[in-house]
Automatic annotation (TrEMBL), chains A, B, C, D, E, F:
The keyword Phosphoprotein does not apply. It comes from Algibacter agarivorans. CDD domains: KdgK. GO terms for molecular function: kinase activity. It comes from the Bacteria. SUPFAM superfamilies: Ribokinase-like. Belongs to the carbohydrate kinase PfkB family. This is Sugar kinase. Keywords: Kinase, Transferase. The keyword Transferase applies. InterPro entries: Carb_kinase_PfkB-like, PfkB_dom, Ribokinase-like. Residues 5-315 form the Carbohydrate kinase PfkB domain.
Length: 338, 338, 338, 338, 338, 338
C-alpha cells in the first residue's frame, strides 16, 4: 500500500459567516485546517491514501479534530496527543477591496511543542511513498523543525518522493534559527519544489524577477544548488480584488518550460487553502499521470483543483476527481450534474 | 373565473446553505418545487388564479407541502393524498466553475403512483382556461403519463389553451414507453410550444442546429406536424460559469420571428426553476397582453421574469408584476424601492 | 483484532430544530442513524472496534453518510453502494404531552434492495467476535432478511457472540414473510436476547405480563425454546411525558434475576436511539467486565449509557466511557469537568 | 358552508431564539399573531372553516402576513389593506423565575385605524355561523370598537353564535371610552362567555373571589345581566414558574358546574396564545360535540388543546385534532407516532 | 476634548439574510441605524470622539439600541428616553436587476415626537467642535425640525463646523412645512455641503445638469446664496445592477474643482449607509488632513471609506483607518492581513 | 463619582448551541467572560458604575472584546493591550446527568503576561470606592498575582471596600507560588469574604464541615486571622442534576448568622457565571441597602440575582434591578411583563 504522508500542525479555524467581522457577530463557524493537512485531505478527497502525522490536544477539541480527519478517511494512527491546547486561528473574510484578516493563537500549541522522540518515524513511514512538507512547520519551533528533519531524512533514505512547499512567512521563525539555513537543510531532502520567485530568491539569496525567463533561470539555479530537486512548479495569482482572482501555473522540469491559461474565478467563496489545493492536485497528478506529458498534465490538474477550491468554504478542498477532470477538459460553464 | 391549471409532482428540495456540499453541513434548508408547480406558483405570484393538481403523501410532510402551496394562494382543492412518501431531491449548489449537483429520491413517490381514476378531471377543470404541462410528468410512470393524457384530452375538448414544455430528460423514462411517442400524443393536445432546438429535434427526429434560421425552420416543421400548435418560444442561456449567466429569448409565432436582448445575470442566487419562471411569465404575458405586439411583449415579459428568478433562492419565483414590468421597461440598475 | 459487527440500514434523519414541526420551519438538521448503526457508533464512541456493513446510495448523499461513519472511526470497508437512494426519515420532536412523530421514506431504499450475493460474509467477519442484529432488518425486505440470515449462520459457525434485539414493528414486514417464523430462525443463531415482555410474547406466542416474576418465567421459556440464547436483558421506560422519562433495566442470565434503580431523566434532549444506546452499553459491558458480577455490571453500564443518550441530539450516543462510569459510580449531579 | 369568523389585529411578533434578550442577539425569529387570529388559525388547524377579517399594511410585510394566513387555509378574502404599517410586538421569553417581557408598537397600526366603512359585514358574514371576539379589539381605538360592534350586531341578527373573550388589559383603552360600558354593549351581542373571575368582576362591577362557589355565583349573575349569554367557561393557570405551569378549566352552563383535572406542563416551549388555544378548542368542541355531555366534552377538548399549545413556539396552535383527542383520552405520556 | 456631534433618529433595521424576501423567511437579522447615527459610528470606528443625540424608547428595545451605540464607544449621555416605540424599518435586499425594498414604521416613533425642550443643547455641545445633520431629521416632524434648528443655531454661535447632507426624500415632509424653506434655514447655519446636483437644485430652485461644469456653477451659486457654506462635496454612484456599483466623488471648495477615479465595487455586500460612510470619511478627513491638498485628500479618504462600506452588512461602516488608508494608497487587490 | 473596580482576565468563551458537543457541531456561539469581568458587567447591568482593568490582545479579537465591554457601558479606559492572544475557553454544556466540560487555552494569554508596570493603579483607582478580586487572578501567573497585589495595597490605603472571592482551583497555580501564602497576602487587604467552607479551610488550613454551626465557627476563625475582613457570605448549591439546581445563601457578619430559603431552578439555561452573579448582587446590595437589615437584604438580593443568572445564556448576568427585586419580593411565578 502506497501512502502519501503529510506532517504539520492542525489548527482550528474560527470565523464569522460570510463577510462579517467578529465585532458584528455572535455566532461563528469552525473548521480544521493547516497547510499540510489541507494538502492531505485534498489528496484523500481525490481518492488518495493519506496519513497525516501531527500532535493534537488531549481534550474534546482534540477529539473533534481527530473526528474531522477521520471523516475524510485519513490514516490517523500516527497522531500523538498532548496536554497543550490545539492551535487556533481567527479569520475575518474580506470582500471586494477589503482584505481578509487573520489572527493566530498557536505559539504554545500542542504541535509547536512536539519533539522528535514523540514520532516513531520508522513505523509511520512504513507504507509511505511520498512525503509532503511546507515552510510553516520548521518556522514554528525548534522541536517541529527537528521532528520534520528526522522524518525527511528517513523518507529520502527510503527513496520516497518529497515535495516541498517552502512558503516563507516572516511573522513566524521566532525561535532563533536562520530560516534560510533551515530551509536549505530540508530542501536537500526534497525532490519536487512547489514555489515561486519569492521562495527561490529566499533560499538562493538571489533577486530574480517574475518573468518566465527569470523563472526558468531561477529554477535552473535551484536545481543546480539542490541536486535532489528535479522539478519546479509555480502557481501565479492575479487579484482583481478580494472577491475576484485569476489563477495560472508554470513549471520547469529540468527539460522544458510550460504554463497554463488563466482560470477566471469571478466569485470567490473562500480563498484559504487554495495554494494547498494546488500542491495536492500536483502531487495527485504526478502520482497518476504517465508519459511525456505527465508534468504538464499534473500542472493542469493542479490548476483546476486550485481553481475549484475557491468555491468551497473552509480550509479543505472538497473537490472530487470528476470535478477536476471536467475542468481540465475545458468545461468551466458549470452546467448541472443530475 | 378563469383558472390556469398546472399538473405535476411536488418535490421537497433539501439543500445546504450557500455553496456548501452536504458533507460540509449539518443544517439544510428545504423548499417545495417541481417544474409544473414552479410555473403555477410563479403565475400566482404575478396575480394569476392557479389550481395545482397533484398527489402528495398523507403525512406531516404532505401537510407541510400543502401549507406551502396554500401560502401562495393556489387552489389546492383537487390535490389527492396517498400513503406513499413525497418525492425528495437533494441539491448542492455550485459556484464559478463548479457545477451544481442533484440527487433524486422520487421513483416510488406518491405522485409517481398516481392513476387516472384518482383525478376527477371534469370537476378539476371546471373553471380552467389554460393548462400547462411539461415533459417530466409523462417520463415518471405509466400512471402519471396516462393521468396527464386524460386531462389534456379534456382540456382540448373544452377549448383551453395548452402550453407544453416537453423538456426531455433521459435519466427518467424508465417504465417502458417510448418518449418520442408519448410526447407526440401529448403535443397533439397542445397549442403553445415552449422549448428549443433540442426539444424540437427530439420530437421531430431531426437534427437542426442552434442558429435563428434553423430555429425558424424547425418551428415551421413542428407546427406542420402538430397543427394544434401555433407558437414556439425558446429561452437561450449562455453560461459564463455557475455564478454568471446571460439569458435571452426568441420565438416563431407562425408569422414572424423575434428575439430579445441578453439579460446579464452577473451574480446568480439560485438557478433552479428559472426555465419555469420563463414559462410562467410567458403564460401570464399571453393571457394579459393584446394586439399585434402581444407575442413579443409576452416573450419580453417572460425573459424579465426568468432573469429575476435567478435572484431568489428556492424553486419558486417570488417576483411580482411590478418588478417584472420595471425590468421590461429597461430599468435594470436595481435602485431602491422605498 | 476482535471486531464487533453491526449490519443494517443507514437512514438519513431530517428534523426541524427543537420542538418545531416541519410546517413551522424552513431549516432542518440532518443526521445519520439506523438502529444497528446507532449501536455500532455507540460502541465505537466507548472505544470499541466496530465494523458496520450496509448498502448505501452511490451519490453525494451516500458519500456524506460514509464520511459520517468514518468520523466515528468505524470500519466501513465492507459497505456496498447502489444506484438506489438512501432511506430517509423525517422526525418531528414532541414536548410534554405532545408525542414525537416519524415519517419514513425507506421502502425502495438502497439497503432494502440488498441481496445475499452483495456481501462477502467470509471476508467481512474475518476479524469479528460479536455480531449484533435487530428485528428491523428482517422486516424490511426478503433480501435484507436473507442477507442477515447468511451472516448470522456464519457468525455462529465461527463461534461469535450474537446479540439480538428483535424489536417487532408491525408497520414493516410487508413483503410476505411471517415475522414470527423469520425471527425464530434468526434467534436460533443468537446468544444474547435484548428485549422485553412484548418481544418475548411475540416470538413465543405467549401472553406474559410485565411483572418481574412473569419476566423471569418468560425468559426461562425463551431460553428453553432457543437453547443458543443464554441471557435476557430488558430495559423499562416509564414516561411521565415526552420530556421526562425514567429508565431502569432487569435481566435473567439463566441463573439469577437482577434489576437496576430508576434513572430520572428530567429534561430529555433526544429520545431517538436510546434503546440502541442500551444495547451498545450492554455489549460493551459484556465484552469488558469479568467475574461473577459481569452481567449485573454490564446491565448497570448499559442503563447509564442509555440514560446519557437522552442528553444528545441525533441518533448517536456521543457518550464516552468516562461519562458512563461516572454515572455508574452514582454521580448523577452533573458537576463540571474542567 | 358554515364559517367561523374571527376579527382582530394581525401583529408581527419578533423575538430572539430561546430565552435570549434582544441585547444578547442579532438574529430574531418572526411570526404573526394576534389573539383573535390565533383562535382562527387554531380552529383551522383542527379542520374548521375560518374567515379572518382585519386590516393589514399594503407593503411586503402585509404580503408576508397574508401569505402566513393563507398557509393555514384561512379565508382571507375579506381582509382590507392600508398604507399604515402592520403592528409589531417584541417578545423576550423568560425562564424559571424570570418573566417574559413584551413591548408593543401598535398604536398607529393599520388595524387601529380601521373604520366601520372599511368592512362589508353583510358580505363578510354571508357564510358565517359563529363569530369570536375578544376584549383587545375594542380597547385599541374608536374605529376598531365601532367596526366590531357593527359586525356583532349583524351576527346576532343573523342568529350566529357569538363567543366573547373579554380580556381586560388596562394598558390599552387609551382613546376615551369607558371599558366597562364598551364591553357591556358587546357582551349583549354574545352567547358564550370565555373568561374568569377577573373578567366577570370587571363587567359586573363585583368583587367575587376565585373559589368554585363564587365562580358559579358570578356566572349566574352574569347570565342574569346579559341574557344572551348562556354559558361561562373559565381556564385556570397555576404557575410554578415561567417554565412550568398547570392548567385546568371549569364551566357553568346555566344548569351545571363542571371542572377538569390539572394538566401538568412541565417544560413550556411557548406560553403565548395558550388562552387563544383554549378558546379555539372550546369553539371547535361546542361545534362538534352533541348531547348531554357536549359542554363538558368541549371544555375537556379545550383544556387539552390549550395544554398542547404550550409545546409549540409562536402564537399559533399547530395542534391537530388527533393530538387533542389522544390527550382527551388520557394519553399524556407522549409515546411516539410512527 | 473635541467632539463630533450627530443628531438624528435611531431606527431598528430588520431584514432577512442574504437576498431573501420576508415571505421566504422566518428568521431575520436586526441592526440599528439611521443616517446621522451611521455617520457618527463610522467616525468613531475611524477613531473619532463622537456624541450622538437622539430620543429612544424606554423599553428593552431602547436598551438594546443604547447598548449598540455604547459598543462603538459613542458618548450616549445626552440621549433621552420616551414611552413611544423606537422606529423600525424592514429591508429586503435585492440582487442583480432586482432592487432592494424598504418599508418604514417610524411615523409616531420616539424620535419623531422629540421637542426642543427635551435636549439641553448647551450641555450637549459643551465639548463639540463639529455638528453633522441631514435632511431626514427636519423632514420627520415639527419637533425634530425645531430641535435640530435650536442645536444648529447654538453650534454656529460657538463657531463649530457644521456639515449638512440635505438629502431630500419626498416620501417624508408630511407635517406641513415647506421643505425648501426649512432646509434653507438650516443651511444658513452650515459650513460644508455634502450633496449633488439634485440637492442643490432642490434648495436653489434651479435645474442644473450632472456635468462637472454645471456642478461647479451650481456650487458657486450655492455658496453665493448661503455664505456660511465654504465647500461642496458630491458622491456619484453608477449602478451596473443591484450587486455591482461604481463610486466616485467630486468637489468645489470655492477655489478649485477636483474629482476622484471610480472605485469598482464588483460584489456588493450591503449598500445601506454607504452615503453616510462617505460623509463620515469626509468629516474625518477634513478634521485630520492639513495643507493645500487637505480637501482633495479628505475627498479621496471619503470615497475609499464609502467603497469599503459596501463590504459590510448592516447600516454601519465597520472599516478602520488602516483599511481606508490602504485603499487610498491604491491597494485594492485585497491581499491578506496576517 | 464612586466606582466599583474589577480586575481580571477577559476570556473568549466558545460553545456549541444548546447541549451539543463540538463533535456534533460546525457552528458555535461566542461570548466574553471571566470571573471578575462577569461581576463587573453584572453590577453595571444593575445600574452600577464599574471600571474593568485587564490586558487584552491588540488584534480584531481584542477589539471585539473591547466593544463587548463597552456595550455594557463599563469604563474601559484603563485596559491595556498586548501582542499576545486573548485567552480562550471551550465549553460543552451538559444536560441532566451529563456534566458540562471546559477546556482552556489561556496559559500564555495577554492577561497572564501582565506585569505591575503595565497598570497605572493611582490613576485607575482615582474614582474607586470598591475593589473586587478573585482567586483566579493570582493563580494564573506571577505577573498577574503581583499586579493584583499592588492594586489591592493601594485600594486598602485609600480605604476602599475590598471583596474577595478566593475560589481555589487546583488546575491553575502552576508558576511556583504557594496558593495558601498568596491568598493570605491578598486576604489581608480584603474586607468582605465571599466563599464557603472549602475556601475557608484552604486559607485557614482547617477541616470544617458544611453545617451552619461549623460555618459560623470557621467564619469567626477567619475574621480572627484576617482582621480586615468583617463579613463572610456563602452561596450553597444543591445539584439535582445538570439541568436542575437549588440555590441558597448564608452569612456571618461578625454579629449574627442568617440564611435564605432555597431557590428552585428547575430548568437551567446556563450555569456559568452564577457564582459571579451572586458576588455582584452582594456588592450591589451592600452598596445600596442601609440599616440593621443591610447584610441580610444584600444576601437575599445576591441570591435572587444568582438564581436569575441561571436563565441567561453566556457568562454575563443580563438581569436588571427590577427583575431582582421582584424575586426578592417573593414573585417567582414568572408572570408576563407587558
Amino acid at each position: 500500500m502506497s501512502q502519501t504522508i503529510t506532517f504539520g500542525e492542525v489548527l482550528m479555524r474560527i470565523s464569522p459567516r460570510g463577510n462579517r467581522k467578529f465585532i458584528q457577530s455572535n455566532t461563528v463557524e469552525f473548521y480544521f485546517g493547516g497547510t499540510e493537512l489541507n494538502v492531505g485531505i485534498s489528496i484523500a478527497n481525490l481518492g488518495g491514501n493519506v496519513k497525516h502525522i501531527t500532535c493534537i490536544s488531549d481534550d474534546f477539541i482534540g477529539n473533534t479534530a481527530l473526528a474531522y480527519l477521520n471523516k475524510f478517511d485519513l490514516d490517523t494512527t500516527a497522531i500523538v496527543r498532548s496536554n497543550r491546547p490545539l492551535g487556533v486561528y481567527f479569520l475575518e473574510v474580506g470582500a471586494v477591496m477589503r482584505p481578509s484578516s487573520i489572527s493566530y493563537n498557536r505559539s504554545h500549541s500542542a504541535f509547536s511543542e512536539i519533539k522528535p522522540s514523540m514520532v516513531d518515524w520508522e513505523k509511520s513511514l512504513a507504507d509511505g511513498s511520498w512525503f509532503h512538507w511546507t515552510g510553516i512547520t520548521p518556522a514554528l519551533s525548534k522541536g517541529s523543525f527537528e521532528t520534520l528533519k528526522e522524518g525527511l531524512l528517513l523518507a529520502r533514505k527510503k527513496g520516497m518522493c518529497v515535495s516541498a512547499d517552502p512558503t516563507y512567512r516572516s511573522g513566524l521563525w521566532n525561535y532563533g534559527v536562520d530560516p534560510k539555513e533551515a530551509l536549505t537543510e530540508l530542501l536537500h531532502c526534497s525532490t519536487i519544489f512547489i514555489g515561486g520567485i519569492n521562495e527561490m530568491n529566499e533560499v538562493l539569496g538571489t533577486d530574480f524577477g517574475y518573468s518566465n525567463d527569470e523563472f526558468i533561470e531561477a529554477s535552473k539555479l535551484l536545481i543546480e544548488k539542490f541536486p535532489s530537486i528535479v522539478k519546479v512548479f509555480d502557481k501565479i495569482r492575479t487579484s482583481i480584488n478580494s472577491s475576484w482572482h485569476k489563477i495560472r501555473a508554470r513549471m520547469w522540469n529540468g527539460k522544458k518550460f510550460c504554463e497554463t491559461e488563466d482560470f477566471d474565478i469571478t466569485h470567490i467563496v473562500d480563498r484559504i487553502g487554495t495554494g494547498d489545493a494546488f500542491a495536492a492536485g500536483l502531487i495527485y497528478g504526478l502520482q497518476h499521470y504517465d508519459g511525456d506529458t505527465k508534468d504538464t498534465k499534473a500542472m493542469q490538474f493542479a490548476s483546476a483543483a486550485c481553481a475549484l477550491k475557491h468555491t468551497y468554504v473552509g480550509d479543505v478542498n472538497y473537490t472530487t476527481i470528476d470535478e477536476v477532470l471536467r475542468i481540465v477538459d475545458g468545461n468551466v460553464t458549470g452546467r448541472f450534474n443530475r
